[in-house]
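INFO worker-7 received task bundle
INFO bundle size: 2
INFO processing item 0
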Amino acid sequence: MVRGDPGAGKSLLGLHFPIEGFESEETVLYINLEETEANIRQSARSFGFDIEGVDFLDLSPESEFFVRDLSYDVFRPDEVEQGTITATIADRVEALSPDRVVVDPLTQLRYLTPDDYQFRKQVLAFMRFLHDQGTTVLFTSQDIEPDPDDDLQFMSDGTITLENTRDGRFVEVTKFRGSDFEGGEHSLRIHRGGMTVYPDLIPRQHRREFVSEKVPSGVPEFDELLHGGIERGTVTIITGPTGVGKTTTGVQFMKEAAGRGERSVVYSFEEAEDTLVHRCGAINVSVREMLESETLAIEEIEPLQLSADEFAHMVREEVENRDARIVMIDGIAGYRLSVRGERGELNRELHKLGKYLKNRGVTVVLVNESTSIAGDHGEAITTVRMNLATGPDGPLTDPYTHPITFVRADFQAAATASGSSRRRRPLSRSSFGVGGPSSVLV
């Protein structure tokens, strides 16, 4: 049973079912009780579907019913039409012996029965008849206020609910008799090729063995502060005000990874690709060469175009199909603004994505913009926190994080380990570096 409001995608899912059967060399029958066969075929063509091999039993009302006023004045419709429709369906099923049958919508039969008891009895008999024929049935249901479809849910072996909300389209399996299934809402997108489902990410299902090793930045002084670099399979957050070098710091690790032949991906929620390429090029980080050699990909994320599940699917494609070893999300605030969903839900989704990437041995860099933190002379400070774990208030609550602080003042920047000392270096156009200790941070 496929249920949902008008426009949720019930009939589209109903098209996927017989097409898959036909491609598997099965016999399929589509019984349409509302929309005409011509309209269904036209709709299928608009999605790029080939349904020439699908048999139709068109029981939709014809225009003659209106033109010739073929309404019933003495008898109810169920007394006139029910026997004819039932016999027509039975004859076609027995003649075709289909492996798959779609009934769209089954609730249309409700208007051919005098009461709910007779409707349930008719549906049960219909389902038993199809079962005896060895047929797998998918039927759609119009769940409207005067005539809810609760009774049909009890009679079906599986229930799929489709929703179309302001936060996007979703699918939920609430019943699948005799089998286990992934509950909860999963994102859904309708496009030229039909329907695509993005299952909710479950990190524990994606564990794999990997070598725990250091991922250096290629800047000796910086790596010294990090005791060799950040660790593979960990999540690192770089936080600070605008313009202090958060993104550039993350890209520096990717530059070094490219030299080892590893692929990295930047998901940019706030900055255009050209801007990132230009800024990195100004300090001799050759992002353009990395893009050309495919050791780096930059994905610009458009606001409110993706759900959290869809974004997670994008990341999984890079990790599982293109072997990305470093993933940077730039930045966390942009993720919350650009990805559809409530703030608390998005924090949980970001945490799940981080757990998934850690389980796959991927090094993760999260860029987070914060307000300026004043130093001795009003410098802007950036803090790098290591081995991030997300808590109830977001991704900055792990007591085991290892802070690294960058200070920008008078066109200079610095880095300190564990807040113990301050190191300065000029922001030159030819390098990314860290100077020696200069003072103690308090």
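INFO item 0 finished
INFO processing item 1
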Amino acid sequence: MRTRRLLLTVLLGIFLCATVSTAESTEHSMVVTATAFNSVPSQTDSNPSIAAWGDRLKPGMKAVAVSRDLIKKGLTRGTTLRIEGLEGEYVVLDKTASRHKKRVDIYMGTDVQKARRFGVRRLRIFWGDHALSTSEQAEQYIDSRCVLKERI
């Protein structure tokens, strides 16, 4: 039973990688303000590991929150993006406060000092037209691409 479940998970990950990498999409880019956030109550609410769309954030995930104006430009939940100067791909799993514009907030687990060191930067982001439709797909995509534990 356990082997079967592991095999199914691996096959799903391979399928998602193949689907995402072969999907035809147009790449977009823009310069945004990039900041960092943590899953701690002082920065979010009483349940800091649950993102705005209900996804569970876990330290080590390459996830971002985006401002609502970027959602309208196609950076919807599950969209993968690249950030200038940072390795790997990130998945949109959260939203910033409505007062922010052209902002990407990079998730840094519970390491508040790491987020402070990152500070505020102007960086270019790149994304296509594809999005992962469920939090399970997003989590599988992150795991299958081995994009955990990014060092900034």
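INFO item 1 finished
INFO post-check item 1: The beta strands are 28-37, 63-66, 79-83, 89-95, 103-107, 121-131.
INFO post-check item 1: The chain is about 30% helix and 30% strand.
INFO worker-7 idle
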